[in-house]
């Protein structure tokens, strides 16, 4: 990695961490703010969450080509400004219409930032350093979210709407700080339309989405990503929370401890796990995560059986969330770098946007698990035990579509890699 790449990477990671810190101030309190502080009720609060999802699903399909043609820097800056305006407006809004419009702006800005920042990290890394770069990003995000949530919890007061306005104001400022930091980044790969065109003539024509969908390995990764995000992130605050409170008798405070255990497991395990991940095949790492999550769901099932004390049930539930965190720590340096290494030159933004879109779709569908988790708890657990085993199977199937270097990037150590993006490839099979 060159000095220019290293300096740019440090600024990107710092801006990313500060943004997560700002988001942490508001994420835990959005429902309370809309439903109770503004007195609009649970339906309005649910509508605000739906607005977040809808804005992401609308914005992301258009994001990738813009990133590849104009570069990620202006996209990050534009998204940060939009998110800042949305956050500030949300903190000042009192009616349902302005709240929904604010949520649309905030959700779109946050969604667009994800693939743009991921593309910046790709441009500032090589295949052999990318794993560690994305691990650091995930670590800093969780640390920032955790600290922001803790401080926000000390500021917030349901009897004082102004305290919530302050939280959203801090979030808005952090988005502007991100835009300011990114403005100072000197990218090692200057974005231009010419550079965004794949070198392989077979990639030059037709729809970018059509080319992506003809890339078998990427399609398999998208399917795998959807299952991963639906089975884990999509259940945290919906189906699994309903299962814990309804079937296992978990109190809201214990649920808070479980979420803290998840974040703590990520922060503590991230760089320990990284040493394991860097030297092993990515497909097998993902398969191992599927097995770990299978154990996590079995332990969750134990907490809902009603055997033993309430303390045992709480301990089992907290352990479930901690095991999910360990799996997340293993996936953070695996999935995002693999997306980048599969992308043809000039299509990194498109591939990152497609993966972010799949994630948002999985999160939007996650609440479908609530009726099972609350009404038929053991069936709910059984379904997700099978889904987790399916993750392991899909990962091993994906491994057969990857080249040796894509599956195990440590093979590149010691080699010079001049281009910050992957070389142009044919859709059916990607060479090293």
From TrEMBL:
<protein>
    <submittedName>
        <fullName>Membrane protein</fullName>
    </submittedName>
</protein>
<feature type="transmembrane region" description="Helical">
    <location>
        <begin position="162"/>
        <end position="185"/>
    </location>
</feature>
<dbReference type="InterPro" id="IPR050171">
    <property type="entry name" value="MFS_Transporters"/>
</dbReference>
<keyword id="KW-0472">Membrane</keyword>
<feature type="transmembrane region" description="Helical">
    <location>
        <begin position="285"/>
        <end position="305"/>
    </location>
</feature>
<feature type="transmembrane region" description="Helical">
    <location>
        <begin position="256"/>
        <end position="273"/>
    </location>
</feature>
<feature type="transmembrane region" description="Helical">
    <location>
        <begin position="135"/>
        <end position="156"/>
    </location>
</feature>
<dbReference type="GO" id="GO:0022857">
    <property type="term" value="F:transmembrane transporter activity"/>
</dbReference>
<keyword id="KW-0812">Transmembrane</keyword>
<dbReference type="Pfam" id="PF07690">
    <property type="entry name" value="MFS_1"/>
</dbReference>
<dbReference type="InterPro" id="IPR020846">
    <property type="entry name" value="MFS_dom"/>
</dbReference>
<keyword id="KW-0813">Transport</keyword>
<feature type="transmembrane region" description="Helical">
    <location>
        <begin position="378"/>
        <end position="396"/>
    </location>
</feature>
<keyword id="KW-1003">Cell membrane</keyword>
<dbReference type="InterPro" id="IPR036259">
    <property type="entry name" value="MFS_trans_sf"/>
</dbReference>
<feature type="transmembrane region" description="Helical">
    <location>
        <begin position="99"/>
        <end position="123"/>
    </location>
</feature>
<feature type="domain" description="Major facilitator superfamily (MFS) profile">
    <location>
        <begin position="8"/>
        <end position="400"/>
    </location>
</feature>
<feature type="transmembrane region" description="Helical">
    <location>
        <begin position="72"/>
        <end position="93"/>
    </location>
</feature>
<feature type="transmembrane region" description="Helical">
    <location>
        <begin position="12"/>
        <end position="34"/>
    </location>
</feature>
<feature type="transmembrane region" description="Helical">
    <location>
        <begin position="217"/>
        <end position="236"/>
    </location>
</feature>
<dbReference type="GO" id="GO:0005886">
    <property type="term" value="C:plasma membrane"/>
</dbReference>
<dbReference type="InterPro" id="IPR011701">
    <property type="entry name" value="MFS"/>
</dbReference>
<keyword id="KW-1133">Transmembrane helix</keyword>
<feature type="transmembrane region" description="Helical">
    <location>
        <begin position="40"/>
        <end position="60"/>
    </location>
</feature>
